[in-house]
Amino acid sequence: xxxIHRTTDxxxxxxxxxxxxxxxxxxxxxxxxxxxxxxxxxxMLSSTESGGGVAEMMPRLCSFLxxxxxxxxxxxxxxxxxxxxxxxxALHNMxxxxxxxxxxxxAHRIYDRVSREAAHELRQVQRRDLLVVxxxxxxxxxxxxxxxxxxxxxxxxxxGTAKRNACTDEAWSFxxxxxxxxxxxxxxxxxxxxxxxxxxxxxxxxxxDPLSHKNxxxxxxxxxxxxxxxxxxxxxxxxDWASFEAPVHRFREGAWTTEPIANLLHVPTxxxxxxxxxxxxFAPLLPAFEHLLSRGPSEAKKRRVSSERTESExxxxxxxxxxxxxxxxxxxxxAGEVLEELCALQAALPRELRERVHLLRLPMADxxxxxxxxxxxxxxxxxxVQNSKQEGFGLTVAExxxxxxxxxxxxxxxxxxxxRDGTDGxxxxxxxxxxxxxxxxxxxxxxxxxxxxxxxxxxxxxxxHFTILAQIRGFLRAFDRALE
Length: 484
Ligand code: UDP
Fold this sequence. Notes:
Blueprint: H1 10-15, H2 20-37, E1 42-46, H3 52-67, E2 72-76, H4 82-95, H5 104-121, E3 130-134, E4 152-157, H6 166-179, E5 184-187, E6 201-203, H7 220-229, E7 269-273, H8 285-303, H9 308-316, E8 318-324, H10 333-347, H11 351-354, E9 357-362, H12 367-380, E10 383-386, H13 395-402, E11 407-410, H14 413-416, E12 426-428, H15 434-446, H16 448-465, H17 468-482
Parallel strand pairs: 1-2, 1-3, 3-4, 4-5, 5-6, 7-8, 7-10, 8-9, 10-11, 11-12
Helix pairs in contact: 2-17, 4-5, 4-6, 7-12, 8-9, 8-15, 13-16
Uridine-5'-diphosphate is lined by residues 53, 214, 273-275, 323-324, 362, 370-371, 374, 393-396, 399.
């Protein structure tokens, strides 16, 4: 039973002004669920209490539900069995379409043994309660709960892909015998759900927390301070605002004037922030940038949508690629390799271009500092790119849009769920093609007004669909259906 530090107060979100109606709706939905639960509780069950998005979100989720009058506790299953982790890691890969388990029946035996033991540990859970099991690792407990104590069961799956192949089919057929016990299954996108379970499935899209360090408003001096402290920019801590010229209206939460005040690096920046992982599509961004700079200004002129200012903005642009310092992420050996590949690509660029590509290794030791840096970078960017080859959701897209920064994102399921092409941002048709990426960037950079309009529309969409409040709304609706 993980102690929950009460970190949120729902009413704080009302002060953000935009969330009043959403909070009212949550209260109404929560009252309905609470009435159905009676004296029952909600239990969350996951397989880790630190590391990863699920663990990060859990305390906030639980304390929100508690704020809404639903007694919610978090339990962590901690199996101490390397065989079990081998099985669940293989399952994870298979759900994403890669090969995994070979000996299915042997894998079931291991999975069942650990799940049975875990189910015996769930003594506090009662029949009147609702148990929400997160991800494949603990999913097996459902079949081993004693009938007399069996609560209403919901499974929340945080992983998945819309693409199907023999591996995904095998993963779902492995999990099927456990999932059949659940009243309701929740997926991040309905297209990730196995077809045969669709009638029991709900969609709860991931979302950002507008009050977290990663997304909260940053005043310009704070923003500059964060970047200076991280050694990312030089100069005085109180900048001479008059000499700056970038989109500072984004730094001033709420105000949408295009008053030119500051550009932190005095240049327009194209920014991607992600783990250094091949699937994040960093590598094609370098040739795309080269392409943009060599053809961009004349192309922009031809299209006659740009002004001299935008042409010069394109020719002065810098590319900033940021991710966790590989030294700080020991569990991800690939990160170092990916960064080295990017360094080699950078070194191969002509000198004047090389100086305009920046590979940033963000410090990871201090979680708050890391979050503030990500926040500042997403705010100062002229355009945020997310060129992933695959993306379950892609929180960085919602994070950037929330800050009013225009986003060009790859046309893959998670990102396409957030960006309607040409409305909330631009979709890159082929994230492996430098021409396709350059085309999207050029469209963004050559018509700044259109880009700002899209960002504003995107921000409203994030507010309505991709925040933690929207997630809780999704959970409450799914709980309500499960308790029917
Ligand atoms: N992120 C971060 N520091 C970094 C790089 C990324 O905090 O140096 C964050 C990023 O802001 C986002 C999360 O890590 O909140 C990544 O989530 P996303 O859904 O974009 O991709 P994932 O890493 O889960 O595949």
